[in-house]
Amino acid sequence: MRPDIVNQIRTCEKIALRLEPGKRERARLREKVAEYSEKFLGRLHDVPAYITTKHNGHGIDRSPVGEKPIGIEPALSLIEKNLDTPGLNPASGGHLGYIPGGGIFHSSLGDYLADITNRYAGVYFAGPGSVRMEQMMVDWMAEIAGFPEKSGGNLTSGGSIANLMGIVAAREAHNLRAGFFKKSSIYLTEQAHHSVDKAIRIAGLKECPVRKVPVDSFYRMDAEKLDRLIVRDKRRGLNPWLVICAAGTTDVGAVDPLDDIAGIARRRNLWMHTDGAYGAFFILCNEAKKILRGMEKSDSLVMDPHKGLFLPYGTGAVLLRDRKKLYDAFWYRANYLQDALKASDELSPADLSPELTKHFRGLRMWLPLKLAGVAPFRAALREKLLLARYFHEEIQKIPGFRAGNTPDLSVATFRYEPRRGDANKFNEKLIQEVVRDGRVFLSSTRLEGKFVIRVAVLCFRTHLDTIELALDILKTKALALGKS
Ligand SMILES: *Cc1c(COP(=O)(O)O)cnc(C)c1O
């Protein structure tokens, strides 16, 4: 007679083994998922970029998690109806709103492998290869950004966290202490991404005076005015310590005069943090090198591979000119990790970020770069720059439309100016009509009180035919609205 505890263990084991499907079952599940993803990709060109539904994914709530399992088919149909139908389809080339994302296929295979093997990418001792791979991705980004040898960084979940990490590293590097916050001023423009304001707050720095540096007619930071503000603040006894600039703003894709700002930051002893979440990867294109000049002088730089490198959501990056500054902000000690810490002097992601255990993000980036090489990424980015310029030229040819500035990168702005009536209201209606149509998705913003529509070209599936379609839809809808 077995002791009771062994019987109990056996019983648990039998049920727990459902977590380990056998070879045939794995093949069946894999096939179903592959079938679903092929169907999704096969239809992508023909389904709308935005779908309005009544249910808005409510079917998910109506199928609560319980003790009883459901099969893969019902699970996939829940996904199809509730996830992959309502709202914006970010995988669609017709996604021209906000800042579009990516989702290249190769990455999904990287994720698949990373999930199956579940290699630990937080600490070198546990996963030397996976840590090296992430390190290599960071080094590659640092290299294309033009950062020096001693630079370093971290793959993050996105640009918001990367902004936060850059700002925290700046705070530590400048040794700011609470009593001093009220005197320590920060400089940015009204065009800074909201994640920057949020990061300042989360970093505990909300008492720092934040100076909004005026922008020029291209919505780029006015470097001369920045310098004047800094000098004035110093004279008043303040401690100007941080300037936050953009390598591609979200609203209009404007690139601040980074080289000039870098010069000022050096001279006045400010930390220069550059938010290149949207725009930094354009450094891969010769066309954008000039406008991004000076980006390599940033003390910290944010790049978002899930934007400019077309990776699926969940991959951002922060780079520091001096990796020691990142370590100084995020180092840790823990008794239970003493073996891991003794084992090597190699820096691990856990030494350089707030995270310990994390998704192994390196593989979803490494695999596509290795399988496709860099050339198609560079070509796709160049294509996006050219498409935005093409749109900018063509929209002006349609009567009634007025284009904004020539795009710095791949965001073009415009609006329709009706002969009579409220232009803001007209454009608001126009964009509603475009979204209702759904074949392309555009978003809007306000510039100097004016309602402005934007076309943001960054999805790798956006090609010339998409832009022609967008132009055609805009022309037709504007004409119809003008008549109504
Ligand atoms: C998208 C974006 C962010 C935020 O990045 P997430 O990856 O969405 O967290 C920050 N700054 C700029 C300029 C962006 O375009």
Low-pLDDT segments, ≥5 res: none
Shape label: globular
Across the major sheet, the strand order is: 3-9-8-7-6-4-5
Provide the structure class: alpha/beta
Integer average pLDDT: 96
Which features does this protein show?
484 residues, alpha/beta, 7-stranded mixed β-sheet, 17 helices, binds pyridoxal-5'-phosphate
Written description of the protein model:
The protein is of the alpha/beta class and 484 residues long. It contains 17 helices and 13 strands. A seven-stranded mixed beta sheet has the order 3-9-8-7-6-4-5, with helices on both faces. Helix 5 crosses helix 14, helix 8 runs parallel beside helix 9 and helix 15 runs parallel beside helix 17. It is globular, with a radius of gyration of 25 Å. It starts with a helix and ends with a helix. The model has no long low-confidence stretch (mean pLDDT 96). The site of pyridoxal-5'-phosphate has 15 residues, from helix 6.
Fold blueprint:
Blueprint (H helix, E strand, L loop, with lengths): L3 H13 L6 H21 L6 E2 L20 H12 L3 E2 L16 H13 L10 H18 L6 E5 L2 H15 L12 E3 L5 H9 L7 E3 L10 H13 L6 E5 L11 H11 L2 E6 L9 H4 L10 E4 L1 H4 L7 E5 L2 H8 L7 H6 L18 H11 L2 H21 L5 E3 L7 E6 L6 H15 L5 E5 L2 E7 L7 H20 L1
Parallel strand pairs: 4-5, 4-6, 6-7, 7-8
Antiparallel strand pairs: 1-2, 3-9, 8-9, 10-11, 11-13, 12-13
